[in-house]
């Protein structure tokens, strides 16, 4: 599958990204165009909803509970894909730069692009992703690596 087809597949699975809950097609294309043999590190910032907001109207969970449901599936999926977390924990503030308000930071490292693609292709991860969407008021993910 070429980059354009893979990007389109991820948009089909995860949505267009225009609402900020997943990468846009151009963001997928950008990351999938990276050298496939270079390490990839993603720095995730999460601001959680007080109450989870599921697209189907399901209620009764906090954002933190919904995120825990996502994490219960995503952490093993990441390990299966060959990735690992360098840090998962609370955001404690800014040291330099404009102040930002986040609840949680997760830094995930992948040995190569193939491992990252394997995570997002994992069916258990895809099935759990709606918990992440419901949990987050907003999120930001930075891409780092060679």
TrEMBL record:
<feature type="domain" description="DUF1330">
    <location>
        <begin position="62"/>
        <end position="145"/>
    </location>
</feature>
<protein>
    <recommendedName>
        <fullName>DUF1330 domain-containing protein</fullName>
    </recommendedName>
</protein>
<dbReference type="InterPro" id="IPR010753">
    <property type="entry name" value="DUF1330"/>
</dbReference>
<dbReference type="Pfam" id="PF07045">
    <property type="entry name" value="DUF1330"/>
</dbReference>
<dbReference type="InterPro" id="IPR011008">
    <property type="entry name" value="Dimeric_a/b-barrel"/>
</dbReference>
